[in-house]
Amino acid sequence: MRLLYFFIISAGIVSCCPGKQIVQTATPTAETGLVSGGKLFTAFYQQQAAEYKALCFQAYNLAALRLSEELKKTSPLPRAVVTDIDETMLDNSPYAVHQALQGKGYDLQSWMEWTAMGACDTLAGALSFFKYAASNSVEIFYISNREEGEREGTLKNLQRYGFPFADNEHLILRESESSKESRRQRVAATHNIVLYLGDNLPDFHSYYDKKPMEEREKVTVGFAAEFGKRFIVLPNPNYGDWESSLYNYRHQITKEEMDKKIREILKNY
Ligand SMILES: [Mg+2]
């Protein structure tokens, strides 16, 4: 934890070389709280850790392997892959940094300003996997909880990199509920969904929808054999239901309360 705070306090201004004392200087905007600081630290991991890239490649390599196995079978319906967008194929870590440096977390207005730019980078391995799927006549359905108002920026972002099936028919955004189940069912009515990709467990099954932490863990043990098979999980250390479930999915919660809850749940000795 001390190390984490060190990086947070000195984010972006660390000078360190062997044998020399590390000088810590805090900028006026540096956030030292556990939540905001944690967001900076995990964004640093997303942006700079080769290990993060390697995990993304690993997930997409596995997805390609599973898809190649599926292609050997007969399929009663056209095949499809269902994928989430954020932190599954597009990288929003610059947004996390932008907010954390102002001591803020997610809010819809600033988020929509960010997504309207269509400026997200792609995750390692994503584009080549989706192109591989498309080249084998496998349709891609992008099921995301981005809002309808984000459609134009999202399509612009996907088309900028040449992601296949980046059109209105295949981009299925948030409707009346955050659960993706009814949207998955609609795709399943006309397609054989061979793979699901996501960074958040509700991207895979409704059993995870707004569930408490303990139940998420139980469901995951039950699905153990599906991960790396039908369910391909991308790493997201920055946000997700793993975090929201700790706060019982409450939107109105202060950073101090969030910090307190995290400290209460951490194992220590
Ligand atoms: Mg996501």
Structural description of this entry:
The chain has eleven helices and seven strands. It has 269 residues and is an alpha/beta fold. The protein folds into two domains: 1-30, no CATH class; 34-265, 3-Layer(aba) Sandwich (Rossmann fold), CATH 3.40.50. The radius of gyration is 20 Å and the shape is globular. The two termini are 13 Å apart. Bound molecules: magnesium ion. The site of magnesium ion (MG) has 6 residues, from loops.
Quick structural gist:
This protein has 269 residues and is an alpha/beta fold.
Write the layout of secondary structure elements.
Elements: H1 2-9, H2 34-48, H3 50-71, E1 79-83, E2 90-91, H4 93-100, H5 108-116, E3 121-122, H6 126-135, E4 139-143, H7 151-161, E5 171-172, H8 181-190, E6 192-198, H9 213-222, E7 231-233, H10 241-244, H11 255-265
Parallel strand pairs: 1-4, 1-6, 4-5, 6-7
Antiparallel strand pairs: 2-3
Bound molecules: magnesium ion (MG).
Annotation keywords:
disordered N terminus; binds magnesium ion; two-stranded antiparallel ribbon; 7 strands; alpha/beta; 269 residues; Rossmann fold; five-stranded parallel beta sheet; single chain; 10% strand
CATH superfamily of the largest domain: HAD superfamily/HAD-like
Order of strands, widest sheet: 5-4-1-6-7
Counting copies of identical and different chains, the oligomeric state is: single chain
- Stretches with pLDDT under 50, minimum 5 residues: 1-31
CATH topology of the largest domain: Rossmann fold
- Give me the number of helical elements: 11
β-sheet strand percentage = 5-15%
- Give the overall shape, derived from the CA principal axes: globular
Bound molecules: magnesium ion
Span of the ends, CA to CA:
13 Å
Order of SSEs, N→C?
HHHEEHHEHEHEHEHEHH
